[in-house]
Amino acid sequence: MLEADRIADTLALDEPVGRVRMVSPGRAKALDAMGIRTVRDLVTHVPRRHLDLTNVQTAASCPLGQLCTVVGVVHKAQLKRPRPRLALVEITLVDATGTLMVTMFQQPWLMDKLEQGMRIAVSGKVEFNYGFKRMTNPFLEVLEPDQDAQGRVIAVHPATEKLSATMVRRLVGNALEACAGLLDPLPIALRTRYRLMSRMTALRCLHFAHNMDEVREAKRRLAYEEVLLLELALMTEGLKRTAGRRPCAHVVDGPALRALDAAVPFTLTAEQQKAREEILSRLAAPEAANHLLLGDVGTGKTVVAAYALAAAADTGGQAMLMAPTEVLARQHGKTLGPLLDAANVSWAVLTGSTPAAERDAIQAGLADGSLSVLVGTHALLEDDVAPKRLTLAVIDEQQRFGVDQRARLLDKGEAPDALYLTATPIPRSLALAVYGNLTLSYLKARPNRGAVRTTHLHRKADRGRAYDAAKEALKRGEQVYVVCPLIEEAPEKKDAKRSGGLQDDDAYAFDRVVIESDEDFAGADVSAATKQAAYLQSTVFADWDVALLHGRMKPAEKQEVMDRFARNESQVLVATTVIEVGVDVPNATVMIVEDADRFGLSQLHQLRGRVGRGALDAQVHLVAATKDAEALKRLSALERTDDGFELAEFDLSLRREGDILGNRQHGASALKLVNIVRDRNVIEAAHRDAEDLLARDPMLDQPEHRALAREMRLLFSSAADIQGG
Ligand code: ADP
Ligand code: MG
User: Fold this and answer.
1) Alpha-carbon dihedral of residues 136, 70, 215, 44, nearest 10 degrees?
2) Mean pLDDT, the chain, as a whole number?
3) How far is the CA of 582 from the centre of ligand 1 (A)?
4) N or C: where does the chain have the smaller number of CB atoms within 10 Å of the terminal CB?
5) In angstroms, what is the span from residue 1 Cα to ligand 2's centroid?
6) Beta-bridge partners for 454
């Protein structure tokens, strides 16, 4: 068959799903509600899980505490409503050996589905309670009468009330039939290197496997393809930014840089030195750098960035450093200013509140090239901020800026090098999956300054201990943060409730608290924090001044509250999580986090970075409202380790990457099969392979790569879909 014909064949994938046999308009609508519009969407509708009926146990033999599959007959199904808003279906399941009780919470509609005598398979953890072996909320599958369930693997697809998993499976089968002869976009060289199944085989095995090995192999193949396409899309997007432009090869051993080195008042840690060398070598290269410097709060990213600024000056270029808030921009001016002065580099700070005359002078200096370094806020993005020769853009706390804002800053130069700083502990595998085209440096340890920070976990009933510790610190003249989360319910959780509590295998959903930007708080209720502040002022901390900070306050008000706290005019700061990243009050040594279980580990870790920044020892007290053993175990990880990256990985292994990166769109959210932590190796390999492919064939227009290029464009049709947030 001609290549062109085979490509045409694969077009079947992008036909409307209504073309598939048995997909009536009504079913098409139900599929649409699940985001399934094309044949491709249907065949890549990943099963939520697989029921392994090659290994079925009996009611008598299934071991307690383990995941098992049991097949039996429904003896009785009963709807109970022990409380007004609690509905549970209790099923008595029998097989030749005995009885298994099955409890399904919040799925009353099961009553319409289940009939006495029906054969079902349930798969879940076996427990022993009230005299019976039991399963709670197992995956439940009604077996068709003629279905020889034994010895097969049944894919259980995400389904809705309108479209059962059984029907979805049947439709997927019909869709697979329709795209027989599918062209495999993966070059044969890669397929043989990793011994990957063909795409068609993988899709068949994903949905209709004979055993679990086939499922694993199918997932391995499809996951690799998924990441490879994402990496290619990210890298191609990155190349586009500077296509046809002339990047700058910076001078990285000039006089300004050497003078700055001499002026730095401390010795760089080994990690800082390594990061500095990595960054300088990227700046020296005649390509537009795209470098991410990752380090926890307090690991000393600013000074490393200072070297890059000096290199721009030595090159006769200009550099801009953009920070998310006025406080941070001014703070940078204060710390970087003396270093830049010593290096004889001209610099200025520009924010929204810079007076007009000063602003004019800055603009003039930028335009004629006499001003080398400009530090500022979003104000840098204004059109009249027009540098003569911008060769470097540094973006601090990059996760707080949108894609557009970052692009606007870079657009002020021909093809400036970009250096991003972030305190979000993004593990390498996630960084690659989100920003395929970036190079990375890590700072993992803080420069040791002697202070010790300990973290303690308390149940709500014991929160008095946290207050006692806070009062001790206050009596020593130190200060205290009390963090109260503003709670919005995570959308997944609402969905889960609606769909009757059935969730993804590995989705660990709980209320999400967003700490990224003030906008995220728009809908949240501030009264809880207000009440808490008033309560603490009148009781526990009656002898001190308690101030309140929350996301709904105007910037000037916030600034006022933070300034007062910094001057020690208030000693206790009750805050929603809006405590600005980078706020630095060394005298604040105790942080109490209320309802800590509402946060992700990474968020808590970022929060606790605000204490223990000075020479004084610090304590973090996490007050957990939950009694759930799993949740407490998760939180106790914070007592054990201070490594933000380790915590992020732990978080990621339990939850989805979106939670670490906030709720914005990003490439990793397009990954259906890949788990960032589990599939680290797949990501690394696909990253290398994508780099390789593009080095040999940048436009992917060689015949053996055309199908790959087409798939990549189809999957990620706009840059906005994939650029990291
Ligand atoms: P962040 O990574 O959070 O932006 P900063 O750059 O603000 O951290 O650095 C935090 C503090 O650590 C600053 O006061 C800085 O001067 C100090 N610092 C940075 N590097 C070192 C070092 N090598 N030795 C001692 N202090 C350092
Ligand atoms: Mg910083």
Assistant:
1) -50
2) 84
3) 11
4) N
5) 59
6) 619
